[in-house]
Amino acid sequence: MLSAVAARKAAQAAHQDLTKPLPSPKVVSPPPSPSPVSPKKTVSKRKPSAQTPNISSRKTKKTKTKHERARYFAAEDAFVQQDDVIVIDEGSTEESESEADEIMDQDGSLFAASSKPIVFQRPATSKDKRAWSPSHPLQDSSDELMDDGEDEPFVQNIPITTSLPRAIVEERPLLSSFEPNWNNNIFALSSEEINSLESSNLVGDSAIAIILTPGETLSLLGTYALTVMYGSVYLAGVTLHPSQTIHHVFVPRSSPVPALQCFQSNGKTRDPKPVSLPGRVHPFLNADCAVVVLRKLCTGVEGLGRVCRTFEGVFEPSRWHRNDNAPALGLTGVRMLQRQHRDVQSFVLSSSWERALSAVCPVDLPDNETSDLTLVVCLVKGPKKTGKSTFARTLVNRLLARYRKVAYLECDVGQSEFTPCGMVALNIIEQPLFGPPFTHPSIPHLAHYIGSATPRASPSHYLSAVQALVQSYRLDVQSPIVDIVGDNPDDSRIADVIPLVVNTMGWNKGLGADLTRRIEDMVEPTDIFEVEARPFERSWPEMTPHDPFGFSKTRSHILEPIAASILVNKYSAADHRNLSILSYFHAIFPVSQPRDLQQIFAVSWDTAIPLCARPPYEVDLTQALDKVFLIGAGMEDVIPGEIERVLNGAIVGLVSCDSDAIDVEGGSNQSNKVPYVQGAPPVSPFISACRGLALIRSVSPAHKHMHVLTSLPPYLLATCRVMVKGDLEVPVWGMLDFKPDGGEQDDTIAGVEKSKVPYLQWGKGEGIGGDRRRIRRNLMRKGQL
């Protein structure tokens, strides 16, 4: 990286004759001493008080002027005294102009020669930053949980110069060292060869086989189905061995991009001619290589970019990668990435993460040793934006190499992994996860609805829900009494014990730290993985050990935070929450009932029509509902006469519980069409369960019906007779019509004029409080007058 002084010298070298000697530096004489100035008496506007002593008797502090004397050898620096902007004329040589046409900056953008002058700007200093003001409101520790999109962007000031060497510019991190050579290390499989494979149940009409040698990496962007046919590969911190398992891999630009690597075993010998591969591939195999088969994956997840425009085109290469001329792999929806650019971050497993993961589950175990039956309970904690959720997902994938099932307790209601935000859930995972949270929405094994992205408004209800999930894990999941062998009886992984991974919140101060400490006492983990705070953040407080005598067997692992990247600032936590909610409502879940301890994951996404044009369920208020609860701050002030307006366009949790668990008489429909009682506490989490979320599109008090949108299967809807509404609202992206013939062209939404569409207002607001709030920061206190 070149400094600003080097950029200035390089610019002046193009116009200055090097043979001309430079002038001798001038010695700067010390500044003359200023003449004494009599202090000016200020007239105070404050009225004299009897209790206040005489102001004139106080000792006033004299302001001393600090004079800095320059050294005798100090020369006059023209760069310090110059203006903030340096303009370079166009009188450059032909050689520098030709180089300027081909020079690329660090981000990959091309600077073409132009007739306009090139402007260099001095980077902003600390003097440009606004000083602290006493009128600025103080932040509470809970405010840090909701300031996801207000952080200052991570900007790296790189001076621009027209004399950079081409070798320095093109030195960007390499993502893929694999060089495709058709019919040598990459093969396009025919239909007959695809059907002859052991994993012939893959869906798709095209497939390629890739041979990876030790040391080669392959980074792919898009969606694809991966099957390991020979050898072992390393993907996102997980080692995959040959099997018939089909791994769905989702790699958008909004998350770190993992690389496929050939994993070298510890001296194990392998058959150089596997039977499952086509015969024309065998001559190119050796004992150290790995063979993977990639096929097209058609799920419709790419259509979520049309729904939420913030993530439009995240599965496609950006304009920086289009100029790389990467070789085509002949597979639809997959693009090879050669070098790293500004909008792509590679998945790198740090040394501290690898040591912590290897302490729980090593990468490569001997064939005759799997693990002991010791229960493993892992708790992951740390500040926000440090990679806590990414590490928890990698830990689940690593444990699945040893156990057939892994339980995942989600305590982060703001950034949930398998469900939309606002829920604490217990999930049962069977397959490794390769993708961000919005690519694997699921119906949890057991969940409870909190109704907000933070437990700040109802901490007691939040702790009760977590305690109910921990109790359910210990009774029903930890040591299952049902047979979980599944479809593969030859699987040698452990089936008698199901380990637990607990993901906590990123709110690590004040009330958030106390809630995390209470969760740790409930779970009693065997391993605690703590992501240390960055230098500019306060670290976690010291935790009291479970055993006061020091005999606790809990192992503590300190993890390094992930490096700050441009992805953290381009896509905020609020954007990811909106995408997860929209992905859940557009997801398609299997209709058949699962077996015991089997979790339901989405198989595809339907983004052909928006939510406002989808046919809803019609629910009879007098027959289908037993009770409606409101939770959150201020919900106890909603009177029964306003409950229809509150439920219009709201997101609610569908809760199932016993009929004897709630007071149906208190919510009788004799006086109100909606069974609602003002200020009633929600049903206890120990006798209820939230099956999923629903969007109430409209409520008709005259006809006693409501229209409901949900992605839950019908067999679950029959048990949900309680609705719970919290602070969670549908994103504005879910209310719009994204079809080409929608409101973007003829000012209509789903065929209705914008002015007549409910829940949406165009233009200036009406009524008191409709305008944007103005914050006055010019108020002064008495001491500042």
TrEMBL record:
Segments of skewed composition (Basic residues): 58-69
Low complexity bias spans: 1-14
InterPro entries per record: Clp1/Grc3, CLP1_P, P-loop_NTPase
Biased composition, class Pro residues, residue ranges: 22-37
Pfam families listed in its UniProt record: CLP1_P (PF16575)
GO biological process: cleavage in ITS2 between 5.8S rRNA and LSU-rRNA of tricistronic rRNA transcript (SSU-rRNA, 5.8S rRNA, LSU-rRNA)
Region (Disordered) residue spans: 1-74, 123-146
GO cellular component: nucleus
Domain Clp1 P-loop: 382-586
GO MF terms, alphabetically ordered: ATP binding; polynucleotide 5'-hydroxyl-kinase activity
UniProt entry keywords in alphabetical sequence: ATP-binding, Kinase, Nucleotide-binding, Transferase
Entry superkingdom: Eukaryota
Coiled coil: none
Family: Belongs to the Clp1 family. NOL9/GRC3 subfamily.
The protein, known as: Polynucleotide 5'-hydroxyl-kinase GRC3
Native organism: Piloderma croceum (strain F 1598)
Organism phylogeny: Eukaryota, Fungi, Dikarya, Basidiomycota, Agaricomycotina
